[in-house]
Amino acid sequence: MPFKFENILDYRKLIEDKLYVEFSKVQKEYLRVNLTINNIKNKIESYKSNYPDTAAAVSSITDFMVLESGYNGLLSALNQTLKEKDTIEKELEKRRLALLNSKIEFEKINKLKEKYLAIDKLNSIKKEEMLLDDLTSNQYNSRRN
């Protein structure tokens, strides 16, 4: 019986490891997106701080449109990256829950294994006691005869 549980535990550990690898990949993706968001925010702040000087140098409407489209492009990239971050956060939560459930399942099986090992040990002790009782009663009976 313990061998059967050991195989099941090995399998559950394999599943847990696979889920952890998937969780780590999503976590790395989340960090990458956060870095991208910070980079875009820094570019927007830089753009805002340089805007008065750049706007003063604008001599035509075309230059102004290019200036505005650059800012709007950064805002659009930020919004797109924030949407991507929300999606990744949901995926990260889903992977975290799957990993947690896998760990719980592993612990349940491990506790069950320990329970059956304890039951087997109790049964073997009872058998030993029964054998000793048999032996002692046989010795007693053989002495009486």
Automatic annotation (TrEMBL):
One of its GO terms (biological process) is bacterial-type flagellum organization. It is a peripheral membrane protein. Transmembrane segments: none annotated. Signal peptide: none annotated. Its main location: membrane. Keywords: Bacterial flagellum biogenesis, Bacterial flagellum protein export, Cell membrane, Cell projection, Chemotaxis, Cilium, Flagellum, Membrane, Protein transport, Transport. Pfam families: FliJ. InterPro entries: Flag_assembly_chemotaxis_eff, Flagell_FliJ. One of its GO terms (cellular component) is bacterial-type flagellum. Gene3D superfamilies: 1.10.287.1700. It comes from the Bacteria. Belongs to the FliJ family. This is Flagellar FliJ protein. It comes from Acididesulfobacter guangdongensis. The lineage of its organism: Bacteria, Deltaproteobacteria, Candidatus Acidulodesulfobacterales, Candidatus Acididesulfobacter. The gene is fliJ.
